[in-house]
Design the sequence.
């Protein structure tokens, strides 16, 4: 059981560091709400629409496509940073190159499919 004591101390200190500033700010900070402080603020004037309005589905589609192609870079960058090592090692020389070409081909096909279906068109 004594092996777990440092973990318990670590958890308690982490919880204290996370909760203590919130409690101290709530206890010591001023709390004087007035209508101007609690009113919604949007670019210097009152909000003119409901904040819970529905978004067009295309917005979510473009956001998902952005995340998908942004993650492509996350997989492409490590490969590019060790490309010289991949090419220098003869047994995987072509495998490492073709593997990334297949990956990029799949992403290009997905991009062309989204483009052909009109997912990237914004009216």
Sequence:
């Amino acid at each position: 059981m004594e092996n777990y004591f440092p973990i318990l101390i670590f958890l308690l200190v982490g919880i204290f560091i996370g909760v203590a500033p919130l409690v101290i700010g709530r206890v010591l900070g001023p709390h004087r709400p007035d209508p101007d402080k609690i009113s919604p603020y949007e670019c210097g004037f009152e909000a003119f629409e409901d904040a819970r309005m529905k978004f067009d589905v295309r917005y979510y589609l473009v956001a998902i496509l952005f995340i998908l192609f942004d993650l492509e870079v996350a997989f492409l960058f490590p490969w590019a940073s060790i490309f010289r090592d991949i090419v220098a090692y003869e047994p995987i020389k072509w495998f490492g190159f073709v593997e990334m070409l297949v990956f990029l081909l799949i992403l290009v096909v997905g991009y062309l499919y989204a483009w052909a279906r009109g997912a990237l068109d914004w009216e």
Remarks:
- The longest helix spans residues 57-81.
- Residues 57-116 form one domain.
- Residues 35 and 41 are 12 Å apart (CA to CA).
- The chain has five helices and no strands.
